[in-house]
Amino acid sequence: MRSWDEPQKRKARIEIIPMIDVMMFLLVFFVLISLNVIPARGLKTNLPSAGNSQSLKPQKKAIITLGQNKVLQLDGVDTKIGELPARLKQLQKPDEKLNLILNSDRGVEVQRLVDVMEVLKTNGFESISIATRKP
User: Fold this and answer.
1) Is-contact 103 63, C-beta < 8 A?
2) Spatial distance between the Cα atoms of 122 and 107, rounded to a whole number of angstroms
3) Burial 70-99, CB ≥16 within 10 A → b, else e
4) Residues 6+ away with beta carbon under 8 Å from 125
5) Considering the chain, what percentage of its residues have pLDDT values greater than 90?
6) pTM of this structure
7) Residues contacting residue 134 through CB under 8 Å, at least 6 positions apart
């Protein structure tokens, strides 16, 4: 009787090199995010400082950003001053107070800040705060 050699079964192996590649990619991604190399939504502003600044509690709010070169954004989206009340009324739910935070760059003219506040007040928005940082 003849015996045939059975082929040996290959053992399963875990390839670690592709896993290392994925981990390195994730590490680089999180490092870039933490260093703010990848730009976030909205304008970068240099807030004015105030000694009596307070922290706001979490609430329904909209952030209006006044940047250099007459840039105006509502929650990171470019907006014209005339469109601002209509967009805010879309965000506001009935029977709910919408708190507005004016996030203005330190170099923005005071007149632009006053103009935006006047537009907001005349359209019925009463709860307006100005964002500052502690010195």
Assistant:
1) yes
2) 25
3) eebbbeeeebebeebeebbeeebeeeeebb
4) 85, 88, 98, 100
5) 7
6) 0.58
7) 49, 50, 51, 53
